[in-house]
Amino acid sequence: MAGPKKGAKPIGRPTDYSEDVADRILDLIIEGKTLREIEAVEGLPSKSTILRWVAKHEEFAKLYALAQEAKMEGFADELLEIADDGRNDWMRANDEENAGYRENGEAMRRSQIRISTRQWLMERLKPKKYGSKVDVNHGGNVGLTVEVVDFGAPPS
């Protein structure tokens, strides 16, 4: 069976490392895209190929790590945006007995889930920066009082 013709357009996903494709991947990661979303983009490699590139290409691995850190910064920005967005928090009540507006619990729960998910990811992926801080240092003085009690001579 003959291989592809010289100069023929490749068919399928790219698997050979390319700086142009790598730069495009890094840009998408910084924008907050997941590897699943990236592999769905026409002309970009699969998730497994991207991870192989991370393992094989030291410079790409460094840039990939920086892109993931930048993605966490984007998540921090999104946390504020989600928390401050109150557009769907209230909805018109269609109840004749309760005219006006009522809380849109579904939208508020969805916002809380979006916030919690981003926080969870940030804490797990960058625990030193975004994880809960636990102070194990004791700043006070510890006093110890010892009382010696004489119970008399032991029985013979």
Description:
With 156 residues, the protein is mostly helical. The protein is built from 6 helices and 2 strands. It has a two-stranded antiparallel sheet. Strand 1 and strand 2 form a beta hairpin. Helix 4 runs antiparallel to helix 5. The mean pLDDT is 81.
How much strand content do the residues show?
under 5%
Q: Helix count? A: 6
Q: In terms of structural class, how would the helical and strand content be classed? A: mainly alpha
Over all CA atoms, what is the radius of gyration? Answer: 29 Å
Residues in helix, %: 40-55%
Runs in which pLDDT lies below 50 for 5 or more consecutive residues are: none
Termini gap: 103 Å
Give the oligomeric state.
single chain
Order of helices and strands: HHHHEEHH
**Main sheet?**
2 strands, antiparallel
